[in-house]
Design goal:
Elements lengths: L4 E3 H15 L3 E5 L3 H4 L1 H7 L4 E3 L4 H13 L3 E7 H6 L2 H9 L6 E5 L17 H6 L5 E3 L4 H11 L6 E4 L4 E3 L14 E4 L4 E5 L3 H14 L4 E5 L2 E3 L3 H11 L2 E8 L4 H12 L4 E6 L9 H7 L4 H12 L5
Parallel strand pairs: 2-3, 2-4, 4-5, 5-7, 6-7, 10-11, 10-13, 13-14
Antiparallel strand pairs: 1-8, 6-12, 9-11
Length: about 325
């Protein structure tokens, strides 16, 4: 499977420009990282609607809340580890408690941030955001889907969190593909096992499915781009029809996609399950490829997890 690569934050930048052209109420706030987050693309097109708040994430969220109360649609942009960590109290108490219409973009999610190391690798942000009442959480799989997600969250009245990776990753979805917040996409049908993934690791899941197919294992692959609200229907259908589930995410195995799927299955249809993710540790410096190998986030690791879960599959 050979495809071009782009950072999915590029899709965020393109989505912001499209929103800026269609909706004069859209504003963008950044915390001195505009070039890296791609919000500088919006700044060049709409300089009067762009605000750099400096390295003051808590202040930036409070400012965004005020702008939203004035009828604007602010997109707050910085690294996921900073916005979910430093500004969590402002997100919880100022924004979510009041249901204020602020859109939060957390860039540089996962260990694939690379050499910047543990302090910059957001591995807990999905858990921190999905636990907040009223928060929508979206983790697009590539640049095309990131653009769609950016445009889509602007249409939702309420707080939203978008998560983007830093590294250029395969672009494998198409402009014409269906995308709707809260509705997962089945990318590959299968009857033996289901892989449910989010973010760029969805592509690794498709590679794993190709390898498993060669070994006679029919694998369903679901792109669960929306972590909250979760598409419970597609999860339960997969559990009923395949009887085994593997989740894959570039995040701690606690509290993220895997935890969300496990909650649905435990309540409705207990099913053998394995989780691909970072296992209760911080990241470190290294190339994205080295880190993916070390933290077992590759297609080969997904294949191993599938075989493990199949060994526990109910007859």
């Amino acid at each position: 499977m050979s495809v071009k690569k782009l950072p999915n934050r590029d899709g965020y930048g393109h989505g912001l420009i499209e929103l800026g052209k269609s909706n004069p109420d859209v504003l963008v706030l950044d915390a001195d990282l505009a070039k890296s987050t791609r919000s500088d693309w919006f700044q060049k097109e709409f300089p009067d609607r762009f605000f750099d708040l400096g390295i003051a994430e808590q202040d930036m969220l409070g400012t965004a809340a005020g702008l939203a109360l004035a009828g604007k649609i602010p997109f707050v942009t910085t690294y996921g580890v900073f916005v979910a960590g430093r500004a969590w109290d402002q997100i919880r108490t100022t924004i979510c408690y009041a249901g204020i219409n602020v859109k939060i973009a957390g860039a540089h999610g996962g260990v694939s941030v690379g050499p910047d190391g543990a302090t910059h690798q957001a591995l807990e942000d999905i858990a921190l955001m999905r636990v907040l009442p009223g928060m929508t959480v979206v983790v697009p799989c590539d640049a095309i889907e990131a653009k769609k997600a950016t445009i889509s969250v602007a249409e939702i009245n309420g707080p939203c969190y978008l998560r983007f990776a830093r590294e250029a990753t395969p672009v494998f979805t198409k402009e014409e593909d269906f995308f709707q917040i809260g509705k997962a996409n089945v990318l590959n049908d299968g009857s033996d096992v289901t892989i449910i993934a989010c973010g760029p690791i969805v592509y690794e899941s498709l590679l794993a499915a190709e390898q498993l197919q060669k070994e006679g294992i029919s694998t369903r692959v679901i792109n669960m781009h929306t972590i909250k609200p979760l598409d419970e229907e597609v999860i339960l259908k997969a559990a009923l029809e395949t009887g085994a589930i593997v989740t894959a995410e570039e995040h701690q195995i606690f509290g993220g996609l895997g935890g969300a799927v496990a909650e649905v299955l435990a309540k409705n249809n207990p099913t053998p399950m394995e989780m691909i993710g970072v296992k209760d540790t911080f990241g470190e410096s290294g190339t994205p490829e080295e880190l993916a190998e070390k933290y077992e986030l590759t297609s080969n690791d997904i294949v191993k997890a599938v075989k493990n879960v199949l060994s526990r599959k109910k007859d």
